[in-house]
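[worker-b] picked up task from shared queue
[worker-b] task type: protein-ligand structure
[worker-b] ligand name resolved to zinc ion; SMILES cross-checked against name lookup, match
[worker-b] sequence length check passed
[worker-b] input payload:
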Amino acid sequence: MSDLHQKLMDEAYEWWQNDGKNASRGDFITHCKSKSQKHLDAVVAGNLNYQVCNGGFGQWVDNGYAVDAWDHVEDLLNRMGTKNSKAILRMLESFKEYISFDSSERGCFGCYWISNGPQECGWCDMGVNEGDYDEETDKYEIVDCEYCNGSGYEEEEVNEGGDIAESRSRDFWEISEAWMVEVEDFLNDRPLVKADDPKVEKETVSRSSSSVKYPKIKVELVGQDGNAFSIMGRVSKAMRRAGVEKDVIDQYTKESMSGDYDHLLQVAMSYVDVA
Ligand SMILES: [Zn+2]
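[worker-b] inference finished, payload out:
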C-alpha cells in the first residue's frame, strides 16, 4: 500500500489499539469519520481491498466489514467515479440484496447473509422413499430417506448471495492493483479520470484516427445504443448515405463480425470518424 493511504490507516488504527481498545468495529468506523473523511476513506478502502484479495467478497462480509462500512464504501466509490470504482459498485450491487444489514447478531460466521433457508431434499418425497416390495400387502415398503434422515430437507442451507459474491471476487482481483493506485491518487487530491469523462472517449478515438478510411463520414456512437448490430447499422447507413460503394460496406460488415465487441468498435473507427 502506498504512502498516504498507509499513513492515514495507521493513524486511525492507533486509536483502536489504545484509547478505543474496547470499541466495536462500528464504533471504530464512527471514530474514523469524526477524525476526517480521508481517514474514513483510507480505512474502508484498505479493509475492502485486503479482505477481498485475501478471501474474496465472502470474507469481507463474513468478517463483518461489509455491514459496518457498506454505505461509506459506496459513497467513496461514487466520489472517485473511475471506471474501476464503477465496476466495483456493480460487483457490490450484485449481492447487496443478500446482506443482512439489520442483523442484531455480530461476529458470527454466516449471520451477515440472508439465508434462503433449508432446501427440500432432492432424493425423497418429504422424507420418505419407497423401499422393498412386500408381496403380502402388494405394496412397496415406506422407508425414511437416507440422504436427509427422514427430515425432508437438505442439511446445509444454501447461501445464494455468498455464491454470487464469490464469483465476483475474481473480477475484483483483476482490477485491485489499479484501483489501489487510484485510491492513493484520490487521497492525495490528484485528479482522477472519471468513467463518464468525455476525455476517455476522445482519447480512444484519436489513437486510431490516423488510418481512418473515410474520415469525413462522421458517426455518432457515444451516448447511443451500444449494441453490436445497432453500431454496424449506423456505420453502414452513414457510409451508404455518403455514397460509399456496396462492396466496401459489405467488406466493413464482414470485418465487423469477425471478432469480439472491441474488434467491432476498432473496425468502425478504422472506417469512419466515430464521435
Ligand atoms: Zn430426503
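[worker-b] attaching auto-annotations
[worker-b] The mean pLDDT is 87.
[worker-b] releasing lock
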